[in-house]
Amino acid sequence: MLPYFNEEALLKPENLIKERGNMPFSMIITWQTSLLQAADRKFGLKKISTFRCGVPCPVYEIKIHKETVGIVNLPIGAPVAAGFIEEYTVRGVMRFVCIGSAASLSPKTMGKIIVPTQAYRDEGTSWHYASQESPWIDVLSAKTLDTILTSLEVPHICGRVWSTDAFYRETPSAVKMMKEQDCLCVDMECAANMAVAQYRKVQCLQMMFNADHFDDDAWNRGKLRSLGKDMYEKLAQLAVDVALS
Description:
- This protein is α/β, with parallel strands linked by helices.
- The protein has a single domain, classed as Nucleoside phosphorylase domain (Rossmann fold), CATH 3.40.50.1580.
- It has helices spanning 33-43, 78-90, 142-151, 172-180, 190-200, 229-243; strands at residues 26-30, 46-52, 56-64, 67-73, 95-104, 113-122, 136-138, 156-164, 183-187, 203-214, 219-220.
- Strands 1, 2, 3, 4, 5, 6, 7, 8, 9, 10 and 11 form an eleven-stranded mixed β-sheet that branches.
- α1 packs across α6 (229-243) and α2 runs parallel beside α5.
- The radius of gyration is 17 Å and the shape is globular.
- It starts with 25 loop residues before the first strand and ends with a helix.
């Protein structure tokens, strides 16, 4: 791993992004196609942009009365999310609302939205945006999201999470270690999302919902791929409510 260089890069998003200032203030990022489809059913989506990361990712607009919110469905993984936040910050987005599934590590998460307070940096991207002094990154927006969800009367739990690049390397020893560190769940993007957003001084609010989970000695599919249309519509509504808060 290269040491962290606290300086601007030679290649910056400004070098590539020419259209600026035409995006909504708030942008929802999800990694679930079912959630994007639910948003389309519930609100109707209008394409306003395309994010290119090897494959084109359409960026849409949701209009709620006089308010406007953006939404995009990204491929999973920290580097893609980091690139999106970088490019759409340049385009004028100031708040990113991230919502996606995560594998639970604790029964405390069942039926609740998970609000990360710290993320264990078991991925590569965050190490290029934040000091390498600690394997944890603080989620500076956690208190804000906690307050918003409390005001919306949404059941939720705040705590540590584990962000990893290698979803097929969640070994028994790794899962045990993260449980001992009081991690509530494992995801792929949170540590990078926070590192990039905090480096660029924009707000990133991250919510997770659990479907699958890790028992003491096995992975359990749970409700992965079977949450249902109604649940995804509720999650889409929640993301919009948070984005407009």
